[in-house]
Write a structure and sequence with these properties.
With about 325 residues, the protein is α/β, with parallel strands linked by helices. The chain folds into two domains: about 180 residues, P-loop containing nucleotide triphosphate hydrolases (Rossmann fold, 3-Layer(aba) Sandwich), CATH 3.40.50; about 120 residues, Histidine kinase-like ATPase, C-terminal domain (Heat Shock Protein 90, 2-Layer Sandwich), CATH 3.30.565.10. Helices cover about 35% and strands about 25% of the residues.
Length: about 325
């Protein structure tokens, strides 16, 4: 993995991804309104995706400004793996012709379900730089409430943003990590007790049956079992086709979540795999995308030497 702790000055003609740490409502408004007014002066459109309380503050200040659109991030569901598709749609709709678009996206960090969910939220922020690298008409401001003073959390998030907003302007972020690969933490071992099953050609029906039974026993509602069955089938099929013809399934329950883990010897080189909707004429490439749409979280770890591990998460209702 190639990294540079002090990257060169970003090319400001390309996609701008800015972190804005703030404390309290007044600072939130100062930074976001400054960003919005810059856009309006330049005749740019703005898409705002922030928690409802923050959106209400901005609405009161903007007086139904027609160039500013508020969107509801909950429509994308809890899985941050769906957000790049969502942002692509939101900003494309507002960027009529060559009109530049600015986005304001505040992730609800404190609503993370568990450590895995929090890690995937950070990974999404890092992937934005890859997803929109060739989109010079777009820029995005990511407000982050730093009121709790958690410097470790702020440092981790800073490494995902090339720019930071200070005093109404963006400057190079010295903490930004340029990397060929995202520095994932190792996946924790499955919780005991867990079920394990090896599979190969002809075993898809057995895989579906095993996961459905374990998920039902764990408390996953009946109306969600067919969705899980589709996701499981897609991932297991990928293992058989691209992962050496066989794989290993494990299932268990942890932190009110039912997990299905698939391991094989294949390698997924595309970090954007599953994050964008496949083209209608595209052959293949739909399995991971479907898994993201159907599951509450998808974790992917893949290296040439260790193979691929994919974990599908389904929340267990309380």
């Amino acid at each position: 993995m190639t990294t540079h702790e002090h990257p060169a000055e970003p090319d400001m003609t390309e996609f701008r991804h800015e972190l804005y740490p703030y404390r309290g409502e007044a600072q939130f408004l100062t930074g976001t309104l400054g960003f919005i007014h810059e856009a309006l002066e330049a005749e740019e459109a703005v898409v705002v995706a922030v928690p409802p309380a923050r959106a209400s503050l901005l609405r009161d200040e903007l007086a139904d400004e027609p160039a500013v659109t508020f969107v509801d991030t909950t429509t994308a569901g809890p899985n941050p793996g769906r957000l790049i598709d969502a942002w692509t749609a939101w900003m494309s709709e507002r960027g009529e012709g060559d009109r530049p678009v600015r986005g304001i996206g505040e992730t609800a960090w404190r609503q993370a379900r568990n450590a895995a969910h929090l890690s995937e939220m950070r990974y999404h922020e890092w992937l934005l730089n890859r997803a929109f690298a060739q989109s010079p008409a777009w820029s995005m401001l990511c407000p982050y409430d730093a009121a709790d003073g958690d410097q470790d959390a702020l440092r981790s998030l800073s490494r995902c943003h090339p720019l930071v907003r200070q005093d109404h302007q963006h400057v190079r972020n010295e903490q930004y990590l340029i990397a060929d690969e995202y520095p994932f933490e190792a996946l924790p071992d499955p919780c005991d007790p867990f079920q394990e099953l090896s599979y190969t050609h002809g075993d898809l029906a057995a895989i579906r049956s095993k996961v459905s039974q374990c998920a039902s026993d764990a408390g996953i509602p009946d109306d969600r079992l067919p969705k899980l069955a589709v996701a499981v089938t897609e991932i297991a099929t990928n293992s058989i086709r691209h992962g050496g013809g066989r794989g290993t399934l494990r299932t268990w329950v942890q932190d009110s979540t039912f997990l299905s883990e698939f391991r094989d010897t294949g390698y997924i080189s595309d970090v954007m795999a599953g994050r964008t909707c496949p083209d209608a004429n595209q052959i293949g490439g739909r399995g991971l995308w479907l898994a993201h749409q159907l599951c509450d979280l998808v974790e992917i770890r893949s290296t040439p030497d260790q193979g691929t591990t994919i974990r599908l998460h389904m929340d267990v209702p309380q």
